[in-house]
From TrEMBL:
Higher taxonomy: Bacteria, Bacillati, Bacillota, Bacilli, Bacillales
InterPro entries: Cro/C1-type_HTH, Cupin_2, Lambda_DNA-bd_dom_sf, RmlC-like_jellyroll, RmlC_Cupin_sf, TransReg_Diox_bact_type
Keyword DNA-binding in record: yes
Pfam families xrefs: Cupin_2, HTH_3
HTH cro/C1-type domain sequence ranges: 1-55
Coiled-coil portions: none
Record key words, sorted: DNA-binding
Designated name of the protein: HTH cro/C1-type domain-containing protein
Species of origin: Lentibacillus halophilus
Length: 175
């Protein structure tokens, strides 16, 4: 991420201001000293004009990506955020589709952050468990096999409904 910022000839302060975050937080994210919400990373990727997967993963571009389960890592594993995620593929920083598994961790709803927004549309498929999708002020119960497609610019949040949490295939789609 730092390399993309430098390549784009932007300062940390410029990117932080565009994203509505502090320069200190951006520095910590760039240096791997803190995990951050996907919504924050999405704003940073938008400011740098690169796809979210490129920010999350940083693997070299290739025509074919095979990523065995044992090689995938769970990122942003922070229970205070209420989720963690696994990037499923990062073919190119220019790719317009970003497949991810989101693990909705069981926790007290009152500890959750505010709903998120980001520039990408989002398609979700419930792989395991159940959750409520809080979207634009309304709650929608979703269980295994259910799908949804929505605009990321509207406030949304994945809320667990039990202590089992949920696993959600999420595909971010850049317009």
């Amino acid at each position: 991420m730092k390399q993309a910022r430098i390549k784009s000839k932007h300062t940390q302060q410029q990117i932080a201001d565009q994203c509505g975050i502090s320069k200190s937080l951006l520095s910590k994210i760039e240096n791997g000293q803190t995990s951050s919400a996907v919504a924050t990373l999405s704003k940073i990727s938008e400011s740098l004009d690169v796809p979210l997967t490129w920010v999350l993963d940083g693997h070299p571009e290739t025509d074919l990506v095979i990523l065995p389960t044992v090689d995938r890592q769970i990122n942003a594993d922070d229970n205070d955020m209420g989720y963690s995620f696994e990037l499923l593929a990062n073919r190119s920083r220019f790719s317009r589709i970003e497949p991810t598994i989101v693990h909705v961790t069981p926790m007290d709803y009152n500890k959750r952050h505010e709903p998120y927004t980001h520039s990408q549309d989002e398609f979700i498929y419930m792989v395991e468990g159940a959750m409520e999708l809080f979207y634009d002020g309304e709650k929608h119960y979703m269980k295994k096999g259910d799908t949804s497609y929505f605009k990321g610019v509207k406030p949304h949040l994945f809320i667990p409904v039990d202590n089992d949490g949920a696993k959600v295939l999420t595909v971010f789609v850049d317009d």
